[in-house]
């Protein structure tokens, strides 16, 4: 038969168990709070970084690797550019060259002179000279085909119907 001291001991044991569980829960809550505050601080740091920070970091790491490879090649007495090219496959090199050729040289509007130059270059690339007509004119006019300071040019040239049509089509396209 359990006496009053046994009941008191059982009650004390239950009380100790509850206190132990309470301390464990309290420690878990404290750890969770501490980890949460650390995560908040790290997230705040990440948000304060510039948006392209990851790319910059990767670029710097790549540059460090390149510098290390250059030092290794210099120590071995090899040319870094040659070693680098030996590591690249022919397919990758061709793909890189095609990609380089595809780049659009049009950098957008910077000023009117640059825009005018780009327009002029584009239009002159489109011109297809008629060499047969040129040869005929050269035979017909001789040296007079190439004007000098003594030449009177105004009103001497009559464009062909095809030339006028090409010009009209080009102007409409522009």
From TrEMBL:
Keywords: mRNA processing, mRNA splicing, Nucleus, Spliceosome. Residues 159-174 have a biased composition (Basic and acidic residues). It is found in: Nucleus. InterPro entries: mRNA_splic_SYF2 (IPR013260). GO terms for biological process: mRNA splicing, via spliceosome. Its main location: nucleus. Residues 148-174 are annotated as: Disordered. It comes from the Eukaryota. One of its GO terms (cellular component) is post-mRNA release spliceosomal complex. Involved in pre-mRNA splicing as component of the spliceosome. May be part of a spliceosome complex. PANTHER family: GCIP-INTERACTING PROTEIN P29, PRE-MRNA-SPLICING FACTOR SYF2. Belongs to the SYF2 family. This is Pre-mRNA-splicing factor SYF2. It comes from Erythrocercus mccallii. The gene is Syf2_1.
């Amino acid at each position: 038969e359990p006496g009053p001291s046994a009941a008191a001991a059982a009650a004390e044991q239950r009380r100790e168990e509850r206190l132990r569980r309470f301390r464990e829960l309290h420690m878990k809550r404290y750890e969770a709070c501490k980890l949460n505050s650390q995560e908040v601080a790290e997230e705040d740091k990440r948000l304060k970084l510039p948006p392209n920070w990851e790319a910059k970091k990767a670029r710097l790491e790549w540059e460090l690797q390149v510098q290390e490879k250059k030092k290794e090649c210099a120590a071995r007495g090899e040319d870094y550019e040659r070693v680098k090219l030996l590591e690249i496959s022919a397919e990758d090199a061709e793909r890189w060259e095609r990609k380089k050729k595809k780049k659009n040289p049009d950098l957008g509007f910077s000023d009117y002179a640059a825009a005018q130059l780009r327009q002029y270059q584009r239009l002159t690339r489109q011109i297809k000279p008629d060499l047969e007509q040129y040869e005929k004119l050269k035979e017909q006019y001789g040296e007079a085909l190439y004007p000098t300071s003594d030449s009177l040019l105004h009103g001497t040239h009559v464009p062909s119907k095809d030339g006028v049509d090409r010009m009209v089509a080009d102007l409409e396209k522009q």
